Amino acid sequence: MDACGDPRPASTVMLGRAAMRVRSPQDLVGGIALILLSLLAFSQIGDLKFGTASRMGPGYFPTLLAGLTGLMGVIIAGRSLVLDGPALDQLHWRQALPILGAILAFGLAIRPLGLVIASALLFGIAAFASSDTKWRELLVVSAALILFAVGLFVLALGLPFPLWPRF
């Protein structure tokens, strides 16, 4: 019996009138997160033309990716009801907040500061998620990843990312 007086275990999910025991809460949460991410992606695709496999439109790949993400979410959430897995662990805010902050900072900084500085911010802020960060290694890895990003996105793919701030 749970704290509310419900005789079902806390890891029971009600599907209509049928109760199903969640055997892997981590997988259930992960599957639901993927489904929500998929729905968000579908909502952002909007009116992009889908096209065909031989003549792909701008909405083809995003739609395909969103659909596959949602399908994986359904599979993972479904497996959580059948296969045993780990329970939910406590959320470690000390690690989660710098990662989320780094992503947010990158998104806000890419246009005004450029790819190079925004990427450096991303790696620098994310490094605070670990107490084992070695700053010299961080500088070397960050420089290599920034060069890779510039080479891939700007030089190879020709994406119009500004590299540096415009004053």
Characterization of this structure:
Keywords: Membrane, Transmembrane, Transmembrane helix. InterPro entries: DUF1468. Pfam families: TctB. It comes from Niveispirillum cyanobacteriorum. This is Tripartite tricarboxylate transport(TTT) family subunit TctB. The chain is mostly helical and 167 residues long. The chain has 2 domains: 68 residues; 64 residues, no CATH class. Helices cover 58% and strands 5% of the residues. The protein contains 4 helices and 2 strands, in the order ββαααα. A two-stranded antiparallel ribbon has the order 1-2. Strand 1 and strand 2 form a beta hairpin. Helix 1 packs antiparallel against helix 2. The longest helix is centred in the middle third of the chain and has 34 residues. It is flat. The mean pLDDT is 89.
Average pLDDT level: 89
* Percentage of residues in strands: under 5%
Beta strand count: 2
In the sheet with the most strands, the strands line up as: 1-2
Principal-axes shape call: flat
Which percent bin holds the helix content? 55-70%
Transmembrane segments: 28-48, 60-82, 102-126, 138-161
InterPro entries: DUF1468
Domain DUF1468: 29-162
Keywords: Membrane, Transmembrane, Transmembrane helix
Give a short overview:
The protein is mainly α. The chain has helices at 25-45, 60-79, 93-126, 135-156; strands at residues 12-15, 18-21.
